[in-house]
Specification:
Length: about 170
Amino acid sequence: MLIPEFFNAFEKYEKDEKNAALRKEVLNSEQLAMLDQYEKETTNNNENDEVEEEDSKKTEEIEKLPLHRDSQDEMPDPTSNCRSGWSYYNGSKSCFKKIMKMVDWQEAVDICEKEGAFLASLLDEAENRFAADLTRINTTRDIDFIGQVWIGGKRDPRDRAFWYWTGL
């Protein structure tokens, strides 16, 4: 599972007793280890809290565009059905696009809707790895976006321990 999307939510909470409740939501030891490392880094970095809070509200988004085609059509080159700038994932027969713009979650949803897409809903580990590869650093421009990804997961307002996919 991609951990960075959880970090943005965690930054909104205080580091004291609420942190203990958040730990219960982390499902495996790898996620817990990543969370501990993240907390150490943020605790040691007490520069400008207001700037950090604003930055934590902003992120890039990955869009997922369902591939629409006639069932009779052959698909000799899967990438030919993705628009320019999109990456094809054969496992879900979908196109993904990484947008290099710092936005909050709702802005990410709006940008996706304008593209005729939705925030990525990662259905299995292989698709998660594919999406994670899209977020890798390719240029020095990408450095500001390390770990900053919005996907289509959203907390259930009635029980914040549960998440659901918004694009399905």
